[in-house]
Amino acid sequence: MNSFLEPILAPFFGLMLTNIVIILIKVAIVIGITLLHVAYATYWERKVIGFMQFRLGPREVGWFGLLQPIADGVKLFFKEDIIPATADKPIFYLAPVIFFVSALTSLSVLPFFDGFAVANINIGLLFLLAMSSLGAYGIVMAGWSSGSKYSFLGGLRSASQVISYEIAMGLSLVGVMIMSGSLNLTEIVKAQSNYPTGFYAIPQILGFFVFFVAMFAETNRLPFDLPEAESELVAGYFTEYSGFRFAMFFLGEYTGMLIMSAIGTLCFLGGWTLPKFIMDLLPFLSELPPIVWVVVFLGKVYFFMFLYYWVRATLPRYRYDQLMNIGWKVLIPLALVNIVFTGTLKIMGWF
Amino acid sequence: MKNSLVKIMFFTEILKGMALTFRTLFKPAVTRRYPLVKVPAQPGYRGLHALAKDNTGRMKCVGCGLCGAYCPSQCIHIYTTEGEDHNKVVDRYEIDVLRCIFCGFCVEACPFGAITLSEHYEYSSYSKNAFYMNKEKLLANWDKYFEGEKGNQYFKKFWRPLTEDFKGNPEQAMFSKITRKEKS
Amino acid sequence: MEPLQIAEKLRERFPDEVLDVREFRGQVSVTVRKGKIVEIGRFLHDEPDLYFDYLVDLCGVDYLGKKDKRFEVVYHLFSIKHRHALRLKAEVPETDTRIDSVMPIWTGVNWHERECYDMFGIVFAGHPDLRRVLLPEDWEGYPLRKDYPVKGPAQEWSGFLDVLDRSKKYRQFDWQG
Amino acid sequence: MMTSYALIPLLPLAAFVINILLGRKLLKENAHWVSIAAVAGSWVVAVMALFDVLSGAKINYDVYTWMLSGGFKVSVGFLIDQLTVVMLIVVTTCSMLIHIYSVGYMHGDPGYYRFFSYLSLFTFSMLMLVMANNFLQLYFGWEGVGLCSYFLIGYYFDKKSASDAGKKAFIVNRFGDFGFGIGIFIIFLTFGNVYYEPVFSQAGNFANASINFLGFDVHLMTLIALLLFCGSVGKSAQMPLHVWLPDAMEGPTPVSALIHAATMVTAGVFLVARCSPIFSLSETALMVVALTGAITSLFAATIGLVQNDLKRIIAYSTVSQLGYMFLACGVGAYTAGVFHLYTHAFFKALLFLCAGSVMHAMGGELNIQKMGNLKKYMPVTYITMLIASFSISGFPFLAGFFSKDEILWMAYSGGSPVGKFVWAIGTLVAFLTAFYSFRLIFLTFHGSFRGTHDQEHHLHESPKSMTVPLMLLCVGAVAAGWVGIPALIGEQIGVHNYIAEFMKPVLGHPEGHGTHGEELGIMIFSTLVGLSGIGLAYFMYILRPELPGRIAQQFSAVHRVLFNKYYVDEFYDFIIIRPTIWIAKNVLIGVTDARIIEAIVNGVPNAIAAFSSGLRRVQTGLMQHYATIMATGILLIVAMMLLR
Amino acid sequence: MEDIEKPFETKELTISMGPQHPATHGVLRLVLNLQGENVIKCTPYVGYLHRGVEKLGENKTYFAALPLTDRLDYISSMNNNVGYVVAVEKLFGIEAPERAKYIRTILAEMGRLSSHIVWLGTHVLDIGATTPFLHAMVAREKILDLFEMICGARLTVSFPRVGGIRNDISQEFLDQLYAFILDFPAKMDDYETLVTENRIWKERTVDIGVISLEEAVNWGLTGGTLRGSGSDYDVRKYFPYDAYDKVDFDVPVGKNGDCYDRYLVRVGEMRQSIRIIRQCIENLPAGPVMADAPKFTLPPKDMVLKDMEHLIHQFILITKGPTVPEGEIYVGSEVPKGELGFYFVSDGTGKPYRMRVRAPSFVHASALTRLCEGGLIADVIANIGTIDIVLGECDR
Amino acid sequence: MLQQLFFGYYAFTIIILSLLVVTRRNPVHSVMWMLLLFFHIAGLYLFLNAEFIAAIQVIVYAGAILVLFLFVVLLLNLKEEISLKQFVGSWPAGLFVTGLLFVSVVSVLGSYIQGPIGKYSIAAVRSETHTKALGKLLYTEYLFPFEIASLILLVAVIGAIVLAKRKLRS
Amino acid sequence: MVPLNWYLILSAAVFMIGMFGFLTRKNVIIMFMSVELMLNAVNISLVSFSHYLQDMRGHILVFFIITVAAAEAAIGLAIILALFRNKQTAHVDEMNEMKG
Lengths: 351, 184, 177, 644, 396, 170, 100
Fold this sequence. Notes:
heteroheptamer
């Protein structure tokens, strides 16, 4: 990416600015593409769940309903923005922004294919965890500032849920960190592709399981969508939001799903790479230009997204205290066992 | 016991559910795309009212008022005057469709088979007046929805009870006539 | 036990209370005075060979102009164990519409009594929460009384602000709380 | 390859963790699978280790360093040499068989998963103990097995006697471990290290060193050896700390077999054998060891003669046999001791398991006076127990014969100053052992049934999961000794004394000073002694069953003393427990508490109260005022420093 | 309940759940006093749908009051109709002919199926599983289509008549119904696959809203809600009406009286309904579908204009109603929600002097207080779902 | 120059934000400003080449501790207290003391002696990555303090549970 | 190059602001947050020392401080909750039980 753009841009901007411009271009590409995917993620969700329920999903707007997300977006953006009288206004305004921005910021460290990440930082994984924990602020603030009791309960639930599952998720990723010996996502993927089994999901099956469950809880999706359980709390923390602000929450949530899927892909399913044994089998694959691998990456991400939809179509919702029990009494111990296990095997040189 | 252990460890019951939803993914949807594709109402559907005409095209109603008396929601209003040859003349026959509960009792009450409920079910409008049916509109409905033999068939089938209901009908639906065999 | 036997038994136990026993289509109604209704209920509930554990229904009937005592409270009792039923009717005069609540015996009668109060104005003494149940708290009159017009009282709607005003009286909790 | 040795202890640990975490809710009746799989895995790796060692490898490495502080290094490390391997095989084999046996024995117990998790934890600790390459890890394993032993003895914790027995075992062991701990401290003090290798290799340098201990100049090696031996005495239930072992029979029978016969109690012997470089440097210590062993074995054997509790007899027999092993070590014949440890593990575990099987059939009845003629109902148990008894009695060519004979020969010929004396005792004990073992057999399996009718009706052979381990162990009880056939016989049939050769690099092999003739004589003599013990038992309990009662009456004083186990428990009660309680009650509560402490406690605040009632007005109770004053204080200090 | 452990006490929170709330199935309003997530007090408010059915019934003839019962439990209006008709027949002292009884039984069980399907779907939906709802609705659609086929309406059927049924069923209807009945068990298995064994479902329902048998009877619970606690009280068995004494079916009974048992009971009832319908179809007798009781049933239409007597009957029955013996009667019937009872006081005229509807949902709604207190908010949802109330019936 | 500019921005914002944190009437607003403050401090750490510290600053402080604060603020729901005075009566004393303390601390700054330079130069840390360098130190030289820290956390968890949990009789 | 002293002054300023908050705020939670502020101030100076002395020990200390801060937050907030339960207030001037 850099090598491609630098010679083109350098004459115009000079080297110093070129770097900034390249970064800006990357940011634009990433955000643009992601938002498009987010929009269509909602479309696919409705389609998939619809088909799973003998329905058709959206199909009236555009060909097969393909313009539905855009219609929805337009509708949301032009809707009246209602602010409850009891709301704490500054925070009410700020909450969706925090939520959305924290989700978008996470995108900056995701490598989509080899060498393409807005910022390829050494502590990428930590950065992702940090950002995903910030989303909780948006939710809690939204819940509190709405001045509605349902929102408030949703906010409280979300705060404790995100804190609890943050731990499980962080611990589940420790196994991957141990195996790859790095926190840099690109390094993790590379270490993974050179590992005999390819995907870390196989040796890290326990960690993968914990991550998989925590993933649902972190993004407030069924069966852990307690903060917005519509049958209990109407819509949870965003009950009082409408229009543009609601859209921010909506987009933030789906971006969060996309990011969690991307983390899962990068840490457990080998990111944009294929396992080594396949590459050895089909050597011509390594001749392909790096950008082609983004297809593999997106394929895996969409596999995760499909799992999100699939689970949502199948499972009922947990209760709040059961959710906490699972987080603290099942997932965290499992993740710890996984760490001990991985660490032991690492010491013994088997990993 | 062992079974439950396996169940807990490997999420068999959840996986079964997931398998079911996944299978459904490939089954045809049952969605009826309503405004585009309309499902015809079954014969005898209790929809919009109509006032029957006889073969000569005259209104069957004689203004006896039984329908209005029987109507549970009391939405039928009939105004009659004495005609030339001391006949009753139905001046106004009005139905407040917004009050009507479409129970079909008026059909049952009418000794002459003058009032019917058509198969038409899409009645929406921007004004209340559209739902205040007067005699003319009701008669027009008859022409619209019961043209030809349809009207006669309607009475034959849905103007009940008939004598056969009290005596037993030789053409009754019976199970033994069912050809379909039970799935083994 | 046959319903008539039950009625006899009841008469034996409470000779002064039982006023009338009638049978219609196999169903037996026992008319009693309202004074000892709780004792009667307790007897019917606790006696082992009666054991009316299930109070099917409680309702009021307004015999305006038909009987001396204007109201009757009707209890439908059933014993799931013995499979026998009994209808108990307590007479309540218009002048004193108080009758004791049987809630201590059959908890499920709670809302039935509230409804009876709601519709007939019969006051159940000892009921823990005797409020209107189906009608709004500020409703006036008792709709199921025979002297209540079928189409409701002829009254103009006094406007939203008035409703808001009245509702303050019944407000139970504070939205800000 | 090396790393895989870590699996040996880790697998049982993993089993423990899985069982304790998931057992109650998930595994329940399936808990044994995890444990058995883990132990079987350990066993496989242990066998692999055996082959590695056989091919000449000696492995000593640190798996994980936990703490590094100056010269002090705490790590988890493994030393796998011949001694370790023998112990590994013994521990994993017995452990595995007993795990399997427990499936049947503990079936339906509410704490099923708990039992197996403790067993796994025990196996883990025991393996850590034997595989340790430093004293600290040894100590860790030592305490670990003690803890598990406590758990398992008190397994039926709702039974008071069981929980008391658990506490007793724990406390009595503390006495020994106290010495052991000090021993390790002194080792660290002396060598600046707690690793075997440097310690043993440098031990020779300190052969003549002495140390000031409690104001006395003591021979250093003797002191260390005796302190370490303290631990052995506690763990291996030697005089005078033997009291806990018979009581420990309150635990489930597999536990008795595994912990209190085959493995844990032999840790003491293992310790002495492992520290043989230290012991060998101190004649005094060796003498103490030999005498303790000899006396204990005699002492326990005599008690065993008259007991009626099935498991207690075997328990005293265990104490006695352990004494035998110490006797062997004490005369310098470590190999013989370890060899006996190895054979003993099989036949004693077998005896216990048979006892468990009998108990299972009798519905928990343990009094042998109430049994009889069980051979009719439980043939498998009978035959296996009979073979075990023959083995322990030193019947020719069974496992016990070779190891016992080796010990006696070594004692006789080894050149130890007390050698001849302990040989005599040993021979006497052999006679007693044969006698009480067969007393047990005859009373239990022969004669007529003396229990209740109910019990008789209920008698049945145990399930497969119990009898199969019995048969497997029986093979061990017969054949385990064949690796140690003495040269005397071995030369005739062309086999070597494999075990002696195998162990030589670690334990050395003192050559006997006798001739083949003497050796043959001793062998025949001890065999005859054993056979005569069996004969006497046969005479007294089959031919003339009324005789024992008469003898008991005749020598009622002796019988009473023996029956009450020499009144050791009562003695301890009198000299230790009661005074302690008395002191606690009268001195501590009465005087110290009431007079001294309370006076201080009450007096000081009274004085302060008087003083502070004036000061209290300054206190507003508001935290921030105090904080502000504190900040002012800091300000003043900083200012002072600035202005200075 | 001696020792409830609560994490900590914070300010009590009062929330008003409903009347507009996704989980309250209509216009039920619950005022919940919360301590954190724990429900300290739960007060139901009903009456938003009160239409004065009893008062209206007193001013209509026995015939004309029938459509009112459609609107009680609008999900299973067929059952209400049947219950009403059975009660009125008993008051009149007439019997419907066999064929009509069988057909009414079939229809009532179809109504029960459709109601239980809605209950299953919404209950499961409340607990978060969306798919069973839509899967179940597909089957309900078929039932509604069948209803439409025979009576021209999908929900408010008003089909049975005093003394029989409105019109005979068609062969097409019978064939389609039989085919549906043969297919339906497999569909039931599908719904159950998604929930019955599911661990989340079990955690959400097992031991939630437990009510003991004694307490349940004392509260006056009926139907599946009572049977979940272990009673076998079923009006169809205790006071058989229509053809229920001629078919063979079991009454599913629960054990613990928790949400899960109530769920199992209702699912079992659905399977029993299939059994009943099948037996009824297979044994359907031939013959009339209206009772030959000219004083109590409308005369045949083809005779009205031919025969004076019939004409007079037509006019009298429709304007004044039948002449009814004086007396009072209570007749219960088993509707999907529980025991629906009608109590008539007749004063000899064609209109009931007093018409009382004993609505099961009304009683069940009052028991919400008992079921929800001490649980969590989420349990309130499970409880509302599991007692299966319809506010139209509750408020009347 | 650029560095000074960056530092200037950070320093200015941090001070303003800390002032906002301690002066807001509504604790929720305080928490919001504190969140922003933590981000700026994390930025400052990045500026000082301490990327791991910056990350845990965000994860632990912002992601855990501050959420906990927020959680408690919400639980207590202190609406009526917001309208009361936010400072204690003796606040001038506090201001005076802290002001003087600040002055004296700043005046110390001129007179310290720089210690020896260590071996972890910026380049060295970069080549090894900061996380790895820190991890190596933590797990070898500072293992013991590290474990004590974990013990403290454990104790804190237990303590918090004991304090917050209590049995209610009803 | 930014001189070390700048960082130290910044740190001192933040510390003093935190201290001011602790000494003067009524709300216990805000007082508690002031304490966190002070800890952060210390962290700033430690990290900058570390940077300028090229030594990791400062970072290690920061690490431990963050750990302790987490522990302290958990305990402190639990105490605040317990206090609130008894007093129904979070204002520190109501909490004068220490008054003699």
